[in-house]
Structure formats: structure tokens, C-alpha cells
Amino acid sequence: MQYRLLSLLADIEKAIRCSLPDADGTTLETSRMVSFHTGLARLSFRARGPNGTEPRGQLQLQHFNLADGRVSVKVHLSWAGSDAHRIVELYTLPGQEWSTEVQRVAEAWLDGPPAGVGSENSLLAAAS
Which residues, 6 or more positions from 35, have their beta carbon under 8 angstroms from its beta carbon? Predict the structure, then answer.
């Protein structure tokens, strides 16, 4: 699963970058951390613009082996400037495409924090 965790992290980053609108003078910077020993990974986002950099949020991934032998990945989504968070769970199921799950995670993060909990700092709002 270690390879899948790293490739899943890269695929999520790519899906987020591809879904972002072109912003004038703003680039998205990322940093990754992967611990193969513990099955944890983190992807952090910062926006670099004319006024410097500012954090945008992060995704934390945790790998689980389920009792029935299937693989599960829990993705914890958080956004800078918001106490809100969201959990997206991914499972290996017959007929389940990882690319569909990757897009689901990317869209959930790009949507920003859940409504009513500090939603003023979504990445799409900052990029527009």
C-alpha cells in the first residue's frame, strides 16, 4: 500500500491543480510528507502571490488494512483560517476506480470548508 499512498497523494495534487482556475499572479505551492512506516501522508498548500505566501490548507491521508483484507484510506481535509474539517473515506471495492475517488477528494477540498464554519478562505475564492 505504500506505493498506492504516495501515488494517491500525487494524483490528488494533480487533480486539484487541474481544477483550479488560472489566477493572475498567484501560484500554488505544495509540500509533501510521507511516512511509509506509519502509513501516513500529508499534502500542504500555500498560495504565492504578489504579497508573499499564505497557507491554504492541507490533506492528511491515513492507510488502513481492514479485517476483510481490503484497503482503506481516510483523507482528512482542512483549510487555513477555518476550524472546519471534513473526512473522506476511500475503500478498495470491486469495480471502484481510484481516479473517481481522487476527483471526489479534490472537489471536496476545492469546495472549501462546510458552509457556516469559516468558509471565507476557500482556495477557489482566493484564486478568483
Answer: 41
Look up residue 27 and give its amino acid: T
Q: Which helix (H) or strand (E) element contains residue 81?
A: none
CA distance 125 to 128: 5
pTM of the predicted protein model: 0.80
pLDDT in tens, 11-45: 999 999 888 776 667 788 999 999 988 989 999 99
Alpha-helix runs per DSSP H in the chain: 2-19, 98-110, 123-127
What's the DSSP call for residue 99? H
**How many other C-beta atoms lie within 10 A of the C-beta of residue 41?**
24
**What is the edge-to-edge ordering of all strands in the sheet holding 71-79?**
27-35, 40-49, 52-65, 71-79, 85-91
Using the structure block, give the residue that is written with the C-alpha cell 491543480: 17
CA 51 to chain CA mean position, Å: 24
- State the Cα–Cα distance between residues 65 and 46, nearest whole angstrom: 31
Q: What is the DSSP letter of 113?
A: S
